[in-house]
Design a protein that fits this description.
binds copper (II) ion, globular, ten-stranded mixed β-sheet, single chain, alpha+beta, Immunoglobulin-like
Length: about 160
């Protein structure tokens, strides 16, 4: 009864095919997701507050790999009530100040450094931070979506 045998064999071979293909498909989708994210964060670190009721600050380097520009829109952290992206400015008398910005543009193929005296992330009402601790930062990008990094608390 060749026809019966064929109908029995077919579902089995189809299942085997699915089992072989499924892990491959998963791999492909992961690597293509990484490619389309196009954002790399390096050297994230947090400076503890300089005094009571003062915010902590976070610094890191953002790189937009490839030919797609992006923008940092918002930051949040379980270690702080809220976070703001700030720009450091200098007034005409040479006094340094800072103000929140809504978008931090990352040019395609470019690198933007958040560092003391420049762009930075303020952690408002941060929990107590000890040097050596790790703080999770959730960075929300216009194109790449949410990128989560672990930032080390450093002295200074
Ligand atoms: Cu600030």
């Amino acid at each position: 009864m060749p026809s019966l045998r064929r109908s029995l064999r077919k579902p089995v071979s189809l299942l085997a095919l699915v089992l072989v293909v499924a892990p491959l498909a998963a791999c492909v989708s992961v690597s293509s997701t990484l490619e389309t994210i196009g954002i790399t964060i390096t050297d994230p670190w947090v400076r503890p507050p300089t005094g009571p009721d003062r915010p902590a600050a976070a610094y890191l380097t953002i790189e937009a790999i490839g030919d797609r520009a992006d923008a940092l829109l918002a930051v949040s952290s379980p270690a702080a009530a809220r976070c703001e992206v700030h720009e450091t400015t200098m007034d005409s008398s040479g006094m340094a100040g800072m103000h929140p910005i809504e978008r931090l543009e990352i040019p395609a193929g470019g690198t933007v450094k958040l560092e003391p005296g420049g762009y930075h992330i303020m952690l408002m009402e941060a929990q107590e931070l000890t040097v050596g601790d790790t703080v999770e930062l959730r960075l929300e990008f216009d194109k790449a979506g949410t990128v989560v990094v672990q930032a080390e608390v450093r002295g200074g």
